[in-house]
């Protein structure tokens, strides 16, 4: 009779370990929220840290520009998303500190 009890204890331990992994984010799955939806690209407001998304087939609206090549945020809190919180572009396209 001790064998079934050991199996139940082991099964319970495995269930608890799996639940702990999921609840603590250690499940091996990485979810990162995209800056824009599929079919869109991110734009930056000139002289501001404001941003938005534009359809791939449209140019940025007045007062907005495309991010410089290689410095485009892709996911919330990625390297470039964090960077552009304290920097912006001026009217000439130069990177300047955000005020």
UniProtKB/TrEMBL annotation:
Keywords assigned by UniProt, alphabetized: Signal
Superkingdom, natural source: Bacteria
Leader sequence residues: 1-24
Name used for this protein in its record: Putative secreted protein
Native organism: Streptomyces davaonensis (strain DSM 101723 / JCM 4913 / KCC S-0913 / 768)
């Amino acid at each position: 009779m001790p064998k079934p009890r050991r199996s139940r204890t082991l099964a319970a331990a495995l269930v608890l370990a799996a639940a702990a992994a999921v609840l603590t984010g250690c499940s091996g799955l990485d979810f990162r929220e995209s800056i824009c939806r599929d079919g869109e690209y991110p734009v930056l407001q000139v002289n501001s840290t404001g941003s938005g998304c534009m359809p791939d087939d449209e140019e940025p609206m007045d007062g907005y520009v495309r991010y410089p090549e290689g410095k485009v945020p892709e996911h919330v809190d990625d390297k470039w998303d964090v960077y552009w919180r304290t920097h912006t572009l001026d009217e000439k396209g130069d990177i300047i500190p955000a005020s």
